[in-house]
């Protein structure tokens, strides 16, 4: 048997190596139908009935071929055979087949008397389920024929495995599972009988009797029937037993009535509860101040406490010494007055002895470090420790950790509603959403905001949102009685050493949502204190640290007047790194960063280019925020220079919002500094942005505003861009003369390319291509190749067009330039169509990239190219579907030219559909 399940239907569709299942619903139904008959032919008629749920259209067979073709790009092994299709995969590699085999093996093992082995086989079978069968497949026929029988088999296998566990003496371990089962299927008498038996075996007689009464009530109310023989026997077995006489401690604090959300972490805690005889489990729940760690711990203890027959202990740690906490815990366990030893080591010894024979849940709230927690861990089999801390307590042996974040937007609104009053929140939904956002969805902040509203019935939510909108007063507003966000943050700050306090304050100079250690140094101590949260490694391999916005406001409040000084101290490093990254993206002199991969040195330089782009992608939000930070602190020179350095990266990644914001801020800074050239450089970049967005009038206006600010070569560069916008060939000629006289190879090469593209002259474009090669500028080389490819395509020189387009793609992929790659793929798609072998794959790949980058104009063009390829292949339905999507994009963009082209192709598609009688 192959070890790994590659395909799955027991839950959402599962593909090999975690690949995402196909997006369209009918593609998923088709794949499911093939997976339910692995290695066997499924007739076309059967597939059409399943994919269209019994109502296939007249064109179903031809459209099915399109779906199969699309599916083959996602799933290997789909074969066309006479009469239908099959998926060439071993049945054992499909989870439903493996599930049925394991169930069969479990039953054989039970018949042979191997109860433990039988339980293990059934447990392995049930472990293959990831949710409801065919969870993301929309086909009633498939669900009736396959999902319903599989679900019934799962339930029978679960009941059989539970019965085996009960026979093996594992009653306490299956109580939670059985409660969930009767909750989901309240009319299954066998599940109720097993729950009652499990509770009896776990010594929980009163709960078992309550379960019988609940089962009887459900059966009488829903079916009008009294319990059957199996359920009555389980009840009789409980009545014949003895009530446990030992008293157990239960120190769980009162649960919070308005507790909201947190289903995922509560499920994680519930699933971690150890078996009755298993090794103790230690869980750490950590996160930022105010995120609700204690509330989650209390809710978890209230929910799972009944599993722990030895009781539930609760202790608040904070800065308390372990010895003092041990004294309280020992008394809770029944240590008599005067029996608690004086020495801490003796207390630890006695605690371990007293917990060794008990199955305990110990909740340790607000721990400060590992050394404080270790002596308090219970040793009894099946025990569990739940620790809350601002630190992940990484050094705590054999522990598992969960970082608790903020609430989801909906959970935040729900919490605000239960505290402030649901009617008030419903009456002002927009203001409620603003309050939740200004609180950063932090439970403590939301609770404070809700409490203030509850005690101020005359306030509107809009009024409170306005008060919170002033970032300088927000922490003042988030205070109600002894609830205060500032106070919670101060506890963490006060516990830091002098160096860490200084580091935390300096971070308050930044408005970025995350930061890497290269800016201020090692940030891990602040993460350990819960004031920062690790965001893992970014694309360039750096550990990134984020923080809640209210934590940032607290740090800024502590820093106060020192902000300019701190920013001035790091501005040089930030500018230097951004400048060097820009130089790698746009090498400007011969020999600087040559990247054509022909020598070992050049391969290394290609790697540097990729790493530079990766570093900029990782630091985009940080650097964009720094432009604003520098400007607000009066560091105008740093602000405009950084905005200028970032422009090529924004263009490469289609980060237009960042580009607009940074340019506007940089322009204001350059004007404040009286730096005319800086203003001109940013206006030139703004014109590039307007041109890319299809707004030539705005681009020309920006360039004309820049012209009076500069002279010489920079004036020529601006004039060249104006020529690109207006198509003025005379402007190109003037610029070319200036660049040649000054020996500016970059300007000369750019002008030759622009002139060649405008005039359609192959010689000029090839000369520009040679110029980019000499400059060591692979991105310029790639653009020249694209212009040449388009020129060859228009002249029907198809082999030359393909060679240029493929060279362009190799450069894009070597550099990791995804968006330029998409435009190259579109040209390749057009070339393939001109060669008489249309293929929608290249345009589909381009579409995926455009959608990833949010480039709607590119996506519209890609949709047109995909539809045209389908039309050339006579796949009319697929073409119509693509054209409808393209038309929608062009309508939203206001792109009349694209809309006209889409409607023209749509008319042709409708004509062909009429010819085919569909």
UniProtKB/TrEMBL annotation:
<keyword id="KW-0804">Transcription</keyword>
<feature type="DNA-binding region" description="OmpR/PhoB-type">
    <location>
        <begin position="1"/>
        <end position="89"/>
    </location>
</feature>
<dbReference type="InterPro" id="IPR016032">
    <property type="entry name" value="Sig_transdc_resp-reg_C-effctor"/>
</dbReference>
<dbReference type="Pfam" id="PF00486">
    <property type="entry name" value="Trans_reg_C"/>
</dbReference>
<dbReference type="InterPro" id="IPR019734">
    <property type="entry name" value="TPR_rpt"/>
</dbReference>
<dbReference type="InterPro" id="IPR051677">
    <property type="entry name" value="AfsR-DnrI-RedD_regulator"/>
</dbReference>
<dbReference type="InterPro" id="IPR011990">
    <property type="entry name" value="TPR-like_helical_dom_sf"/>
</dbReference>
<dbReference type="InterPro" id="IPR027417">
    <property type="entry name" value="P-loop_NTPase"/>
</dbReference>
<dbReference type="GO" id="GO:0000160">
    <property type="term" value="P:phosphorelay signal transduction system"/>
</dbReference>
<dbReference type="InterPro" id="IPR036388">
    <property type="entry name" value="WH-like_DNA-bd_sf"/>
</dbReference>
<feature type="domain" description="OmpR/PhoB-type">
    <location>
        <begin position="1"/>
        <end position="89"/>
    </location>
</feature>
<dbReference type="InterPro" id="IPR005158">
    <property type="entry name" value="BTAD"/>
</dbReference>
<dbReference type="InterPro" id="IPR001867">
    <property type="entry name" value="OmpR/PhoB-type_DNA-bd"/>
</dbReference>
<dbReference type="GO" id="GO:0043531">
    <property type="term" value="F:ADP binding"/>
</dbReference>
<dbReference type="Pfam" id="PF03704">
    <property type="entry name" value="BTAD"/>
</dbReference>
<comment type="similarity">
    <text>Belongs to the AfsR/DnrI/RedD regulatory family.</text>
</comment>
<protein>
    <submittedName>
        <fullName>DNA-binding SARP family transcriptional activator</fullName>
    </submittedName>
</protein>
<keyword id="KW-0238">DNA-binding</keyword>
<dbReference type="GO" id="GO:0006355">
    <property type="term" value="P:regulation of DNA-templated transcription"/>
</dbReference>
<keyword id="KW-0805">Transcription regulation</keyword>
<dbReference type="GO" id="GO:0003677">
    <property type="term" value="F:DNA binding"/>
</dbReference>
